[in-house]
Design a protein that fits this description.
The chain is mainly α. It has a domain of 167 residues: MetI-like (MetI-like fold). Helices cover 69% and strands 0% of the residues. The protein is built from 14 helices and no strands.
Length: 294
């Protein structure tokens, strides 16, 4: 009876702590959302805390009128999809190759790959290299530098080495080559780690804005995050501009710096939040590399 009571108390405490942790993670997004649909006047004065007040959706209508937002959204989606696919493909294949003892110069190339994780030449050499490669004002600047990721390659290599080697050996006995083994044998086995890499890469690509800041001056190549960065810095002047052109005298609907910042933040955050649940089951399995097997 005493054991059962202790288990019950532990469960209550455990669930309570996890519920509080979940609430702490969820509340910032909730707070952001209720401020986008509440009175802009109340929101700017910090009076919207736990529930929306004077609900309206004018903020989203006005923010979607920002010049270049549609093009920036397309560029962000394009770089996220293309960059993620290329990074996942390269990480999967290179990780598989590094797991093969017969790979030419395997030890040298693997150590060379790891060395790049510890040494960084800095911003200026990186910028000069991008210029020499012709990646200034070039969409490829978003996807090419991130194709080969040492950390992701190491993750895949570790995962491949944890799979039964007998499957690859039996395929070799049947005359299968490395590419056939990779696509038909290894790929289905390493789906969890590839999905995990896809999540990390997609979030990184979607949230990136510094490459745009340093390498892009063409407005047609601006990303959504870069637009957010610019309008975050100039939200006050943008709000003034919107107010001057607004015919609505209702204080609840007049744009403020706070309404612009919160609404653009929601527009940027929502797509990546919608993608994550589809990869969650793979993410949980893939991130448990090295865990005790049962």
């Amino acid at each position: 009876m005493g054991v059962n009571n202790r288990i019950t108390i532990f469960d209550i405490i455990n669930y309570t702590l996890f519920a509080l942790f979940t609430l702490a993670c969820f509340f910032p997004f909730y707070y952001l959302f209720i401020n986008t649909i509440s009175s802009n006047d109340l929101s700017s004065r910090g009076l919207v805390m736990f529930y929306p007040q004077e609900i309206h959706f004018n903020n989203y209508i006005e923010v979607f009128k920002i010049p270049g937002l549609g093009q920036a959204t397309f560029v962000s989606f394009a770089r996220t999809v293309i960059g993620t696919l290329l990074t996942v493909a390269a990480s999967g294949f290179l990780g598989y190759l590094f797991s093969k003892p017969t790979m030419w110069g395997r030890k040298f190339w693997y150590r060379f790959l790891i060395a790049t994780m510890y040494f960084n030449a800095g911003l200026i050499p990186w910028f000069l290299i991008m210029l020499k490669l012709g990646l200034f004002n070039n969409f490829l600047a978003y996807v090419v530098p991130g194709i080969v990721s040492p950390f992701f390659i190491i993750l895949v290599k570790t995962f491949v080495e944890s799979t039964p080697i007998s499957l690859q050996e039996s395929a070799q006995l049947d005359g299968a080559g490395n590419m056939t083994i990779f696509w038909k044998i290894v790929m289905p086995l390493i789906t969890p780690i590839l999905a995990t890499i896809a999540i990390f890469t997609a979030i990184g690509q979607w949230n990136s804005f510094q490459d745009t800041l340093f390498l892009v001056t063409d407005s047609n190549l601006f990303t959504l995050q870069f637009i957010l960065y610019r309008y975050f810095n100039g939200a006050t002047s943008l709000a003034t501009l919107m107010q001057s052109g607004a015919s609505d005298t209702n204080l609840a609907n007049i744009q403020t710096a706070t309404s612009i910042r919160t609404t653009i933040s929601m527009v940027v955050v929502i797509p990546i939040l919608l993608v994550y649940p589809f990869f969650q089951r793979f993410f949980v399995k893939g991130i448990m590399i090295g865990a005790v097997k049962g």
